[in-house]
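User: Okay, second chain of the day. Same drill as before: sequence in, structure tokens out.
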Amino acid sequence: MGRRSAYPIYFSCVLLLVSLASACEAQPTDVPQVMPLAGAAVQQAEDFGALVEKLSGEGGYFDTDNLISNESSYLHVIPRLNQLGLRGGAYLGVGPDQNFSYIAHLEPELAIIVDIRRDNMLTHLFFKALFELADNRPAFLRYLFARAVDITEEAAHEMDVAQLMRIVSEAGMADATVQEAIHKAVMQQVRQSGVALNEADLDKIGQIHAEFMAKGPALRFTSHGRAPQSYYPTYEQLATETTLSGETAGFLGQEVYFQRLKKMQEENRIVPVVGDFAEAHALPAIGAHLKENGLEVHAFYTSNVEFYLMRGQKINRFAANVRQLPLSPQSIFIRSYFNRWRAGHPLSVPGYGSTQLMQPIEAMLSMETLTYRDLILQDILDY
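Assistant: Same drill. Structure tokens below.
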């Protein structure tokens, strides 16, 4: 990307936003047949929308929001993940934007985010719009939080993430006119995704953006019916987390990571779908689609979903679905284990309420009897 003028990008962005906000808003389109994905080929918006619909299954309820992770340990596995040589192929994940950091390092040809909550799919369409609108990390955060951030483009590429987040946190809210222009630009971009959205969906995306704008980088994970926990990190804390060796490995940690994701989003290669890991449609449909396009699953980030599948006696159905995915002997699970009110894990790090784990997928599939203890302790890769 060529260098622009040294004028602060905040002012040029405002002019662009006002122009976008005044444009005619596109309406959702009908969903056509899905075109095959040829490797890392760009998908048109209509194909992207059709793929979201084709792969999505029955949704459901889970008692947490889907705006931000509560896994402060999420980057601890990155160095070992990079050593495993799992780049390319397909990435599967669950939840909100913690996926982006894994995707930025693995550089898959296709990433599919599967979540039981339809709201999670809508959140990812919101994030997709931000990546498409923003030229760099400060612009992404400006769209996300509607903060009056004033950083030159040259500085944006070189800035340390801790400094960047500090500037964003200390910046005041943009004035009402700019906030409105930002929101209108984002919503117009969402409507161009190719995904069929009804008014309730659009209202929900508007609420998601409003929450980010209201709370800013101080936003925390919330759970319905349960009190907030002291170990829940803020958005700023998650963004500035590091590996155990101090590497800034999050997707906002370096401009190169952000640009990888921006390219994938513009090429419609990060696909959010609705689905229960244990139900009969989403994962089998994803497996069939990947096989049709010659892609193996290299990494599957499950967060701590298997804990709930185990509790609901659905873990064997999940394992059966995983067996339908195209896998290699190197394919791995990335999991989160929450040790706040259980015995600590051998890989637990003091001061962290979660522990990130990696286990070969074939190790899980070879277990005669699936127990949660085996999932978090057997054949776990050290890091």
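The two ends are 36 Å apart (CA to CA).

User: Thanks, on to the next one.
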